[in-house]
Design brief:
Rossmann fold; 20% strand; six-stranded parallel sheet; alpha/beta; five-stranded parallel sheet; 36% helix
């Protein structure tokens, strides 16, 4: 690991769950981090694998926590999934297991809903996930629909609990059909390239900040970015040992980025 000169970096891509908040609880150091980004005129993007919320809903969620972040600073795996399907098969149809964020993103690019003979079965985070919806999805895939997952995360941090994420919800469909899903969220390089394009920033000048080695750190690493693993979400010093690659820096939370940038702290 090495120290990152945060002052020289132009752009920051940040995960949200486990980095900015747990559930509806803001994490320590986040207001200071956002203030520093604005003061230093850094480009920044909240890039989340959670497909359930629209950018506007995420904006409002942070607003309720006292943070004012314009809507254009959010990019989700739902938007990445919609962009992928639009590029692959314009005007296609899909059977979707997911929330408003995913459904809206698909509608916005002209994808229609179809539970009879869809081109795709698309799975994201879902509160209405059930044996009935999974059975329907399995039979549609066996009938020829292609299987798409919004992201490959198997778990996500809640306020006081761990909750199953998209990868875990897709797994029964994969197992029952013998079909592997194609995942559009991190660490898919298509999503990362879009993130850098929205930042208007080259990978060498950008930092990926996240709480997961298997999506955040690997996606930053493979995109040529500096990487910061924060220990405020899923990862712990113990889980870190199971990976053969390392982040550029390990910090307790995003507030430490500000302290490090100002010379108040050394890297962990």
């Amino acid at each position: 690991m090495y120290s990152i000169d945060f002052q020289k970096k132009k752009g920051f891509i940040c995960d949200m769950d486990g980095v900015i908040y747990h559930g509806n609880q803001l994490l320590p150091g986040v207001p200071e981090f956002l203030r520093w980004l604005h003061e230093e005129k850094k480009s920044y993007l909240f890039l989340t694998n959670n497909s359930g919320s629209t950018p506007r809903e995420l904006q409002q969620k942070l607003g309720r926590m006292g943070l004012d972040v314009p809507e254009e600073h959010f990019y989700t795996s739902a938007l990445a999934t919609a962009a992928f399907l639009k590029a692959q098969a314009p005007g296609c149809s899909a059977y979707v297991i997911g929330e408003a964020g995913l459904l809206n993103a698909l509608y916005d690019v002209g994808i229609t809903m179809n539970d009879v003979d869809p081109d795709y079965v698309v799975v994201g985070e879902s509160k209405s996930y059930s044996l009935e919806t999974v059975t329907k999805a399995i039979n549609l895939v066996l009938g020829g629909a292609k299987l798409i997952g919004a992201n490959s995360d198997v778990s996500a941090p809640g306020e006081h609990t761990t909750i199953p994420a998209c990868g875990a919800l897709v797994a029964p469909i994969e197992m029952a059909t013998g079909t592997r899903a194609y995942f559009c969220g991190k660490p898919n390089p298509l999503m990362m390239r879009t993130g850098l394009r929205l930042l208007k920033c080259h990978s060498e000048d950008a930092v990926m900040v996240g709480d997961r080695m298997d999506t955040d750190v690997i996606s930053g690493l493979e995109s040529g970015m500096s990487t910061v693993l924060v220990l405020s979400g899923i990862s712990t010093p113990e889980t870190l040992k199971t990976f053969s690659y390392r982040p550029s820096m390990i910090l307790s939370g995003v507030g430490e980025i500000v302290r490090t940038a100002r010379g108040d702290s050394s890297d962990a």
